[in-house]
């Protein structure tokens, strides 16, 4: 039989969905090492983002998770949840690089990859209260990929309010997946009046709406936290003023939703990140197209890009037709109800050092002569694999299952 080079095998495998790759890890030790290697994981994820494939919606409701492929949005698939004793949890918005983070009833923070079912409970972090009497603490979280250091970060911002609910101080911490530890960063001099969850990542930064200074009123700005530099900054927005403002992400573009109460919302997208003049109004949704709503967030375009999938009131999904300016329900089989929905990209990203694979040797394990001979025969392939993805043996204590 003709054999293919590892370059061709790696290229073909990088185009497959995650579910197929998880099964193909059982083909051989060589394939397992290739699929588990950091280089392959990054290549597969990068290709998925560039081609807008392997994209799904994760839906949460009453301690359960379901996944909804955008290619087959009519059928939901249950996700095995690693924690069994949760009365409730909240999905938090990460970047499009596939991991989710959530809270349990005791405020335990964890990272979870729905594709691999791997999770990591983050170290507990104490709160340093200001010395100014009784305070109310409000917390907010963001999740970002640090492309500069090839790391995943969790941002925690705390606001301390006095008895009059006035913000008197704030604190910011960043968790590094590589070091598995928290670090303190300079506080952000912005207040978050509406407690909006930080939107998914765009250009190495996560975003939210804030006001300048620790005051109740003020001009609302788009606050960005850059994962690479660990700094806060402001992204320019259009001059138009709205009563209600929130930010989101739509297919890699920063998105602003501006409304006047619960009946009318303008949806804007920033075509060129950081350029004020690039803000473009995508559509306006208002009666009689829809009734009153509390939550409206864009999730994804349809394949033909003629419609936008929206999360409506955290109760159902709807399609908005950009040409007809009309909406229709997006019924989903296998989903009794929903309370939140977020987009993610399916990937093989691990939670033990950003892709590093560790397999412990079994005690008393002895290598037979037959295995030694097989290993010698694979010498040429190992050399090629090392050239492609680095030496997997340096990342594994053992490649044996």
TrEMBL record:
SMART domains: FBOX. It comes from the Eukaryota. Residues 1-44 form the F-box domain. This is F-box domain-containing protein.
